[in-house]
From TrEMBL:
GO cellular component: nucleus
UniProt KW keywords: Cell cycle, Cell division, DNA replication, Nucleus
Compartments where located: Nucleus
Function: Involved in the initiation of DNA replication. Also participates in checkpoint controls that ensure DNA replication is completed before mitosis is initiated.
Any coiled-coil regions, as ranges: none
Name of protein: Cell division control protein
Gene Ontology biological-process annotations: cell division; DNA replication initiation; mitotic DNA replication checkpoint signaling
UniProt GO molecular function: ATP hydrolysis activity; DNA replication origin binding
Sequence ranges assigned to domain Cdc6 C-terminal in this UniProt record: 377-457
InterPro entries, A to Z: AAA_22 (IPR049945), Cdc6/18 (IPR016314), Cdc6_C (IPR015163), Cdc6_ORC1-like_ATPase_lid (IPR054425), ORC1/CDC6 (IPR050311), P-loop_NTPase (IPR027417), WH-like_DNA-bd_sf (IPR036388), WH_DNA-bd_sf (IPR036390)
Length: 475
């Protein structure tokens, strides 16, 4: 594999605390083993609803079925009378926005398969960045299904080292003399010493193993150096888990795993994924463009977590549906009518609900913001972009805002009223106001970026006109 490409993919991202997981969300469900089923089968399920797709994503699977869903050979080969090639081509399209990572994984696995070489890889990335989904896609590719003996273990479910070894024995169909840790371990090592098919062992969520069970990681991460034809892939959130938790591996070159990092999804990637998911569900126009822009901008600014994005998408659609069918509608007509359109207002409401902001969106959200609040936001943008100020104090903001308002023949709010308007903007999550002994000395920090502001203001001409009005800035 080309080193340059490798380095590019292993790009450094900010790390997140060890064991920091998707459970940080108050209402987040632990996604179970079948979470990728929908993704993998996304293209063959035109009859499935987006709602169901997203709901499935959140369903907790309580059983111990950690293996990602495999598309059965029968399913893949003959589906509705279609030939294997047609259905496979349809089903096995790489995940949107993860094409590069998937290509990297494909090259990595192909190279080691061809050379019959052992290797280890550590895949990192924050929650919801598509690590499991991408690996699941790769494991289901026919060439890897056929040529590798695959073992996939989600470590969240593993209660002890014995259960991990036990599971590996089962998957490899290795006979053991018992179920104890030692019995299973010996059986595996005996198997690995003999000539065997290429093994692909994927350990997902290895950061969920506590320190006691982490010793098992050392053992397993050593296998590729000790035995031939073993490819090991460890997956977790933290960028530097192998350095911190397995420092001994770093010391020996032969044991040091390669790394592949999944960066948080950007706004455009989230939009692309949504667009693709909605198109596959024949729901292309469910989101108004501005609503989708806002949702994607917010998620990418906060976490780049697609699980969260899909969850919010589902809630927004439900809200839009409830709003539309609130009066005198029977359940039947509700189900039949799929022409719901999600507007910015509903996205803001759900975002407020999820990420805080005490004040519920009121009718003025129909038009984005009341005019005075728009002028304040635009004045802040003007100060930040053209005034080159890093920190905005309320007094200075009031000076600029007054000029901006006067230039448009709008009566400006006085200092006290402007502070109240800023408090409303703060409640919507647009601003943070803090510090300062007096009202004029309080600091104002914008929480939204340019794109989010444009989406929320719904008034691009006003914003660009004010941004051009440098005469309103102090000389
Ligand atoms: N590129 C994508 N296209 C479509 N859906 C995606 C994509 N990436 C992620 N998802 C969706 O987001 C959910 C979370 O993705 P996934 O489970 O792969 O994240 P992860 O990186 O493994 O997260 P964690 O670290 O929490 O295990 C998936 O169930 C999938 O439905
Ligand atoms: Mg995962």
């Amino acid at each position: 594999m080309c080193i340059k490409h490798r380095e590019k993919m292993a790009g450094v991202q900010a790390t997140i605390p060890f064991r920091s997981r998707k459970k940080v969300y108050v209402d987040d469900e632990d996604v179970g083993s079948n979470e990728n089923k929908d993704i993998l089968n996304i293209r063959k399920s035109s009859d499935r609803k987006l709602k169901r797709h997203i709901e499935h994503d959140l369903k907790r699977e309580t059983d111990d079925d950690c293996t990602p869903v495999k598309i059965s050979r029968k399913d893949t080969m003959v589906k509705n009378g279609k030939s294997r090639n047609v259905s496979e081509e349809e089903n096995l399209k790489p995940l949107t926005s993860r094409e590069t990572e998937i290509e990297w994984l494909d090259t990595f696995l192909t190279e080691h398969l061809e050379k019959e070489q052992s290797a280890s890889l550590y895949v990192s990335g924050q929650p919801g960045t598509g690590k499991t989904a991408s690996l699941s896609y790769i494991l289901n590719l026919p060439k890897f299904r056929e040529c590798y003996k695959q073992v996939y273990i989600n470590c969240t479910m593993m209660k002890s080292a014995a259960s991990i070894y036990n599971r590996i024995c089962k998957e490899l169909q290795v006979p053991t003399s018992g179920t104890t840790e030692k019995a299973c371990f010996n059986a595996i090592e005996k198997y690995l010493k003999k000539k065997h098919k290429m093994i692909l062992l994927v350990l997902d969520e290895i950061d969920q193993l506590d320190s006691k069970r982490q010793s098992v990681l050392y053992t397993i991460f050593e296998w590729p150096a000790l035995f031939s034809r073993v490819v090991l892939v460890g997956v977790a959130n933290a960028l530097d888990l192998t350095q911190r938790a397995l420092p001994r591996l770093q010391a020996r070159c032969s044991l040091r795993p390669l790394t592949l990092h999944f960066a948080p999804y950007t706004k455009q990637q989230i939009i692309n994924i949504f667009t693709n998911v909605l198109a596959n569900e024949d729901k292309t126009n469910v989101f108004s463009p501005v609503a989708l822009q806002m949702l994607a901008a917010k998620i990418s600014a906060i976490s780049g977590d697609m699980r969260r994005a899909l969850d919010i998408g589902r809630r927004v659609i439900e809200l839009a549906r409830r709003t539309k069918f609130s009066d005198n509608q029977s359940i039947d007509s509700m189900m039949k009518d799929s022409s719901v359109t999600v507007e910015l207002k509903q996205v803001l409401e759900v975002l407020n609900d999820v990420y805080g902001g005490s004040r519920k969106i009121e009718t003025d959200a129909e038009d984005g913001f009341p005019l005075q609040q728009k002028l304040i936001l635009c004045s802040i943008m003007l100060m930040l972009t053209k005034g080159k100020v890093k920190e905005i104090v309320m007094g200075k903001l009031h000076d600029v805002y007054k000029k901006v308002a006067n230039a448009r023949n709008i009566m400006p709010l006085d200092m006290c009223e402007m502070c109240a308007a800023c408090a409303l903007l703060e409640a919507r999550g647009a601003l943070r106001v803090g510090g300062g002994a007096s009202a004029r000395a309080r600091r104002v920090r914008l929480q939204w970026d340019h794109a989010e502001l444009c989406a929320a203001l719904r008034d691009k001409p006003l914003l660009s006109a004010i941004l051009d009005d440098v005469s309103c800035l102090p000389s």
